[in-house]
TrEMBL record:
Xref: Pfam families: Pvc16_N
Lineage: Bacteria, Pseudomonadati, Bacteroidota, Saprospiria, Saprospirales
Organism: Saprospira grandis DSM 2844
Superkingdom field: Bacteria
Protein name: Pvc16 N-terminal domain-containing protein
InterPro entries, A to Z: Pvc16_N (IPR025351)
Domain Pvc16 N-terminal as annotated: residue spans: 5-184
Length: 186
């Protein structure tokens, strides 16, 4: 499910940037900034790089299984999905000569989320159709220490960037559960 959300959001963002800046290329790519061996993962400059920097459990949702009646009058165990929030970092990976251009595109990323009021649904993001009815994105503003920790964790030098938290994404594996007969007599 996370892959579908990331692909849908980046696809919509690329369409927005193409329209806003009258360009044909896709400016946003999905990638690490740095490979595990320390080398740069992105080979092409002048891009906005989207990287997932954290996946956290949504604490306000219950994960306790319940029993629901089925059509035959018995009960079936229903385990709710795990709800997660993901943190997407959008970084301007631009050459020194195009630094200001990178800042322009970071501003456009912010404008994209502002134009949707942070809401993604089946109407404004068709790629989510059938997967997720609603997704909310909110900008996160970490303090300087947290920013330093993020970039140390990513393994790269600081780049102009903006961070968004997407909440809540359900993840589940539906498997057939045995039926539990209802008690008819005592």
């Amino acid at each position: 499910m996370i892959d579908k959300v990331v692909t849908a959001v980046v696809g919509e963002l690329n369409r927005f940037l193409q329209s806003k800046h009258n360009i044909l290329e896709e400016k946003v790519i999905i990638s690490h900034l740095v490979n595990a061996d320390g080398s740069m993962a992105v080979q092409e400059a002048d891009k906005i790089v989207m990287t997932i920097i954290n996946i956290e459990a949504e604490r306000n949702k219950s994960s306790t299984a319940t029993y629901q009646p089925n059509k035959r009058g018995n009960f079936t165990k229903v385990t709710p999905p795990v709800e997660v929030n993901i943190y997407m970092l959008f970084s301007a990976y631009f050459t020194n000569e195009n630094y200001l251009e990178g800042l322009k595109f970071v501003s456009s990323v912010i404008a994209f989320f502002q134009s949707r009021q942070g809401v993604f649904n089946e109407q404004n993001t068709p790629a989510l159709s059938g997967s997720l009815s609603r997704l909310v994105a909110e900008m996160v503003s970490p303090d300087f220490r947290d920013i330093s920790n993020v970039w140390n964790g990513v393994g790269a030098k600081y780049l102009p960037s903006v961070l968004y938290r997407f909440k809540t994404i359900p993840i589940e594996h539906k498997k057939p559960e045995p039926e539990i007969p209802s008690i008819r007599k005592i």
